[in-house]
Design goal:
The protein is mostly helical and 332 residues long. 73% of the residues lie in helices and 0% in strands. The protein is built from 13 helices and no strands. Helix 6 runs parallel beside helix 9 and helix 7 packs antiparallel against helix 9. The N and C termini lie far apart (82 Å).
Length: 332
């Protein structure tokens, strides 16, 4: 617990919320906390606890909150769910409890597999898998590695999903029985980790961890990548039609269509390879971006029209005031 509370990522992002420190003080505090953490704990322990904490905070906790919301307020949840009431979780306590326990088991299994790979790779390389030094990564290094990790993840996710999870093999049957048991329905966030353990490791753990194993970025960069992908997957699996953003809203709709169609398409995380390979179901990524851009343009035009109207009204009022003042002066 002391390691979890001392994670610099938590203090760095939580600092501005709870204090009024300046940006330089936050950066200094972040560096001091990270240095203390590196000098007092092993790299493997920092990696595993940090990764687990990121998935608990950015997936498990929001997923349970969404689950409570969907089950306690179904009429309200239905109005913002893609595919309506069919996308709501089953209101069966025993079934939901089994899903929660399966999700927690899969989360623990994913962490254990990551630990085994990190130990094995560290033994072969004779150094920790990730750069765990007191020297912080440079911004351009973070951006470069994040782009590389995302690209590799998109490729792995697409081909694993298309040719392994949605083929005719044994793994595909397991994936279908667990992940696609509901028909014509969008998923809900808890389902991110309620697949059979073997398909889940291939679909969720491998595309995130294998690129990091090859690139070996700084551990803070890997933490950031884990947080971003966990947030993305949690929102895309939420099944809500109100997910904000031009890109994120499209990802959520394509994910919902993938599950509602029984896995006939939309195999990639971002939809780029589906667009290139012709495996998109429903609107592809190009159409989603175009639709969202048009919506934002309509909003901007609406705001501009409202602003122009208010300006005209204000100018008219000012003109009337000036006219009254001039008439008073002429009468005097």
């Amino acid at each position: 617990m002391d390691l979890l509370l001392s994670l610099p990522i938590v203090s760095y992002f939580g600092g501005p919320v709870f204090t009024s420190w300046s940006g330089s003080m936050n950066l200094l505090f972040f560096y001091m906390t990270w240095t203390t953490l590196v000098l007092s704990h092993s790299p493997l322990k920092i990696e595993l606890v940090g990764t687990l904490a990121a998935r608990i905070v950015f997936w498990l906790v929001p997923s349970l909150f969404f689950l409570i919301f969907d089950t306690l307020l179904p009429s309200l949840a239905e109005s913002i769910k893609l595919y309506g009431s069919s996308s709501l979780p089953r209101r069966n306590a025993a079934s939901l409890l089994r899903q929660i326990l399966l999700a927690i088991f899969n989360l623990a299994l994913s962490t254990a597999v990551q630990a085994g790979i990190s130990i094995g790779a560290g033994t072969l390389l004779h150094h920790p898998l990730f750069k765990t030094s007191t020297r912080l990564p440079l911004p351009w290094q973070i951006v470069k590695h994040i782009c590389m990790l995302y690209t590799a993840r998109e490729v792995l996710t697409y081909y694993i999903s298309r040719f392994i999870l949605h083929s005719r093999g044994r793994i595909a049957k397991l994936h279908k029985s667990y992940a696609h048991s509901r028909k014509n329905a969008a998923p809900y966030a808890l389902m991110l980790y309620t697949d059979h353990p073997l398909p889940l490791l291939l679909h969720r753990t491998l595309p995130v961890y294998l690129p990091a194993l090859v690139i070996q970025p700084h551990l803070l960069t890997y933490f950031l990548f884990t947080i971003l992908t966990t947030l993305e997957e949690m929102l895309s699996m939420s099944g809500y039609s109100i997910v904000p953003g031009i890109i994120m809203g499209g990802i959520a709709r394509r994910t919902a269509t993938h599950y509602a169609s029984g896995g006939r398409g939309n195999f990639g995380a971002w939809g780029l390879l589906d667009w290139i390979g012709g495996t998109s179901v429903g609107k592809d990524v190009a159409e989603d971006i175009q639709d969202e851009a048009e919506k934002h343009q309509v909003k901007e035009r609406g705001h501009k029209a409202a602003s122009d109207t208010s300006s005209i009204v204000q100018e008219s009022i000012d003109g009337l005031k000036k006219g009254r003042k001039s008439r008073k002066r002429s009468s005097d």
